[in-house]
UniProtKB/TrEMBL annotation, chain A:
Phylogenetic classification of the source organism: Eukaryota, Fungi, Dikarya, Ascomycota, Pezizomycotina
Protein name: Signal recognition particle subunit SRP14
Family matches, as InterPro entries: Signal_recog_particle_SRP14 (IPR003210), Signal_recog_particle_SRP9/14 (IPR009018)
Comp. bias regions, Polar residues: 38-50, 59-69
Extent of the signal sequence: none
Organism this protein belongs to: Aspergillus pseudoustus
From TrEMBL, chain B:
Chain spans, region Disordered: 35-58, 116-161
Protein name: Signal recognition particle 9 kDa protein-domain-containing protein
UniProt feature, compositional bias: Basic residues: 150-161
Signal peptide feature range: none
Record InterPro entries: SRP9-like, SRP9_dom
Source taxon at top rank: Eukaryota
Pfam families: SRP9-21
Residue stretches making up the SRP9 domain: 8-99
Biased composition annotated in UniProt, kind: Low complexity: 124-140
Amino acid sequence: MSKPLGHEEFFASLTTLLTSTSQKTRGSVYLTQKPLLPTSTDQTSTTISPPSILIRATDGNTNAPNPKSASEDKNIKKKSKESKAKLSTVVQPDELETFYAKYAEVCKAGMTGLKKRDRKQKKAKGKGGAGKVSKA
Amino acid sequence: MPSSPYLPTSAAFLKESSLLLQAYPDSTLITTKYTFPSSKPSSKSSKPSTKSDSTATATTPLATLVLKTYNPVSGICLKYKTNKAAEVGRLITALGLLAGGADISLLDVAVPAAGTAGGEEDGAVVTPTTGGAAASMGAGSNTGAGVSKGKGKGKGKKGKK
């Protein structure tokens, strides 16, 4: 298990992971979050403070090239060993807000494969508006 | 366990998720999956070169975002699926609030502040009880109507297919 990264490092790597996946239009990125429970020694001191949040990101090896096609391309074959991306970071309770603000930005920027509302919106509006005008 | 259904709206998902997190704050895991539809390897392998990719990009596969809140202790799993880029920011911010242990009342206040959509929180606020799926669904349908009103017909699947 790799050590948790700093936030900036995590975001940088996550951006790369998301954009590369989006560009390939193939594969997946899995983001998980769960409370990081104190170790058993700490449990005696029942502090009220909420636990830190552990954030993980991985591509689940879905960006690995197809093994059949990889055998034909040496470059891809070389990359396949290290292709599984795993990132993690720990967020302290008091950092949650700032972290998630950035997190949301990174995800928004990186997940370009999703349906974009803006373009459709403009088109729909244009058509609708024109239609209404002509009817009126 | 029964197969976990997709909740109809993000508001319903976040509401149910916050309830699950409140019930099991220590053991609940939230997963966000950003995924492209998988191409069948068998069909691709018949065409040896990567040129088959160019034909695939012509159609531009649309990614989907699946949010999943899972609690292994109770076996409860909640899911929400979307393919709208506009929802990402709002959802992630909401996940942050969930992670911080925000309860529903806080969530209702905070979500609209984070996002641009206006209709959603109204429905959620109207149902102050620990509302079940029915209440949430009601709120959701309102949301859908509100959004589609504002954004035109682009929201439905009609435009795509």
